[in-house]
Design goal:
The complex is a heterodimer of chains A (292) and B (682).
Chain A lengths: L1 H8 L8 H8 L3 H23 L31 H37 L1 H16 L2 H12 L3 H28 L2 H8 L4 H37 L11 H9 L6 H28 L6
Helix pairs in contact in A: 3-4, 3-11, 4-5, 4-7, 4-9, 5-7, 6-7, 7-9, 9-10, 9-11, 10-11
Chain B lengths: L4 E10 L6 E11 L4 E5 L6 H9 L6 E10 L2 E2 L5 H5 L6 E4 L3 H4 L6 H8 L5 H14 L5 H5 L8 H13 L5 E5 L7 H17 L3 E6 L2 H7 L2 E6 L2 E7 H6 L4 H8 L41 H5 L5 E4 L2 E3 L4 H5 L22 E13 L4 H5 L6 E13 L3 E5 L6 H9 L6 E6 L2 E2 L9 H6 E4 L3 H4 L6 H12 L5 H10 L16 H13 L5 E5 L7 H18 L2 E6 L2 H7 L2 E6 L2 E7 H4 L6 H9 L8 E2 L30 H5 L4 E3 L5 E3 L4 H7 L4 E2 L5
The chains are: A mainly alpha (292), B alpha/beta (682).
Chain lengths: 292, 682
Amino acid sequence: MAVEATTAGATPVRGWRPLTVLTSLYRRPASAAGTTIVLVFLLMALIGPVVAPYGVNEQIASEARQSPSPDHWFGTDHLGRDVFSRVLYGAREILVVAGLGTLIAVVVGSAIGLLSGYRGGTFDEALMRIFDSLLAIPALLLALLLLGLVGPARNAVMVVIVIVYTPIVARVARSAVLSAKSKGFVQAARMRGESQSWILFREILPSAFPALTVESALRFSYAIFLIAALGFLGIGVQPPNPNWGLMVAEARAHVFQTPWALWMPALAISVLVIGVNLTADGLRRILRAPGE
Amino acid sequence: MKPALSIENLTVSYRNGSSPVTALREVSLEIQPGEVHGLVGESGSGKTTLVLAAMQHLPDQAEITAGSIQLDGQELIGLTQDEMRAVWGTQIALVPQDPLSALNPSLKIGSQLRELRADLSKAEARKKSIGLLEMVQITDPERVAQSYPHQISGGMQQRVMIAMALCMGPKLLILDEPTTGLDSTTEAVVLDLIRDLMHESQTATLYVSHSLGVIAQFADQLTVLYASELVEHGPKMELFEQPLHPYTHGLLDSVPRLGENKHEIQLRSIGGSIPSLGDLPPACVFAPRCSVAIDICHEARPDLESSGVARQVRCYRWEEIQANQVDPRQPPAPPPLAKSDSAESVLKIEDLEVDYDQPRSLAKWLRRSPPQSVRAVDKVRLAIGKGETFGLVGESGSGKTSLAQAVIGLVDPAAGNVELFRAKLPSKISERDRKTLGQLQMVLQNPDEALNPYLSVGQSLARPLVLLGGTNSEDEIDRLLEAVRLPSEYADRYPAQLSGGEKQRVAIARAFAAIPDLVLLDEPVSSLDVSVQASILNLLNHLQRKHGTSLLFISHDIAVIGYLSDYVGVLYLGHLMEVAPSRALFDPPYHPYTEALLSALPLLDPKASQERVRLQGELPSPLNPPTGCPFHTRCPRFLGQICVEQTPPWQEDETGTSIYCHIPLEDLREEQGLVFAMRKRK
């Protein structure tokens, strides 16, 4: 989502450069907190594996099931793995699979939605009916089907996220286009012979940004849940991957002996989701039309 | 006699972050039983706040900081919601602007009326509700009572609201712009009804409107609000005869009156725009826009002074104005160029037809029955010469916007021919080349949607220069802004930072940027405040004079059309009914529909006389248009079978007026007197 703001920043519209966006985000306490959380998690994803005190799958049998202590900040799980290190490693996992998956879904979905909504007619009608039928299948069922075909793999999970969320994002983008299409400034653009890409990207897309930002944050949150759910069902990413959802699933069996092994990754999921949503809310404010 | 409503020194402010915003400052007014008190004000004048305060229904962030509101001697300020419940409906009743949002969409009209009389038995309440509907001149009350609000027309909905308001015989009736959302012929019928009801009743009425014309018809007393201040108050006749406040002068001068034309009378617009309530001028609120403001006007707030019997005015210079020592009127705009009759034709429209396909049901689609379509524009022919203005007048559903959209290429016409400079215009905008696009531009109705909120004014103005020719430079953008009388700093502003009138100026500048030959204007002033409209109309005249541009001006307001145009076309259900030079439009013979339109417009002169020509029934559904003459179902001069069976001929007289009617022109001329007579303005 931050990436979207950057693409817009490439255009000469004032106040949309990444740094300006960041400072504006820090102007309100809620979005400042959210942005800080997102930045911390990004940092974790970047340098987590380097600074982690233990290896991701390093088992110290003698130190299994230890409660949090100065040696093991988040304690250790039933196999003697350091939960803190695994949470650190997991940040990259989650941001790559859920984050990248969502990002692709948002970009592809927005593009399809924009074009389909603007073109209208049979093309739009046909595409939307296909999307409707995709939307009618529960995400989990679709994921089970696809993963059953290709076998469990990290990239496959990402593809699943893209396939499941693209239609939803496309619908949101399309409805934003439909409301913008009939507005006077779009008609005026057509009257002076603007190209289709100018009309789509300069006249219509900016108005759709606020809605798309919020949708992206929502999709990202659901992607994390979907990955966790797939991990829990034993398809998708496989142990001993430090995926937080998978960690929760694994720790569930030992919840009475090592509750921290369940709580810590769960907490990480919640904090990240809250952070992303607060940031998105802040971005929505910033991306409103200038002067409003 | 005890006044029905007495408001004294009412001051209301809204909490807005740390700084409160004053919406009303020390406003006083009194209404006697049986009296109609007109309250005139533009947006941001505080008239809505006054209505809400009188109803004791202000939003939570509003606070009455001073004053009193007495209803029949009872103080309303400080009453709780529970105590007010006994007052609402029974003692104060409100008819709002938008009836559809005031009526419950899930209940039938009859049961909503019955609900008001919970004190009566079911059968009695039913009888009473039918009686109420009859009182507001609904001809088939049984059917209306059985209908849901959305199933009846806007005029009918407003009548139901009036019936509800009068149901309990309130002491005070508040009419808040009750006819603003209606078409002019419907408005006239509803205004007649209100006038008749007011005449009979002893109810005190507060009539709120932005239109001086409507107020001129009704009010006994008149109060003018401007930017939270009461600026002038007095009996209607005196106020119209001799306004004392420069703002009242401005309001009266800035509206084109029926029958006036730009070649005879130049409008005196009020400069600038209405200040926002958060940013009011410190002393006299009107001083920044006033042409006779002196130093003190910018330094200290004038008191409300008594200027005669029951007259008050808040101005330092009213005595000089009264004695004709100063003229508070703005200087008139320069006259437009006289038009030459041998003008070269710019646009020619021949037998243009625009259809909209109705969605087909699945069953029909399977049976492969052809799609049903609605004809929005039917066989329209017109021509516009160079530097000429063609005015197109019609009510909603007349097809005037569809016609413009077909010319500009946003809608594909079903048939007909559009020629620009004698060359056929490709019907789709995508098939037109740059040169054609540059020759033809359009200004749309809603200024709030006309500009891309994400582009600055300068960026918006640069686009037509880039695409359609002209030099894209800062100087050129400054020149464009100057042409629409905006300072060059505006290039860096965004639409959200502009007022409605300023946005429309930018939209006009954008349309004129590449110096087109023809500009289509779709209701460019109808969403603007009265005091801003005149300056936009003057601006259009100025640009037309400068570039020799031809204009196709579309409006529902026949006075504005008659003022601005050289030729006028009257549209009804997609058909042209009459085409006339604007000079001849106001004299008989008229098409019966034109006659009704001229009769419907509230005149800006309380002493004017106007024939009552009213249209019965509703606009026919375009899905099932009338046979023969499209106007026959509502025509007050209906002849008989011939109107139903045969399409009327076009008849032309020596003035150049063409009328689409079966009645011979001589008969029309004989039967029709002047529809209206109004004094010439000084």
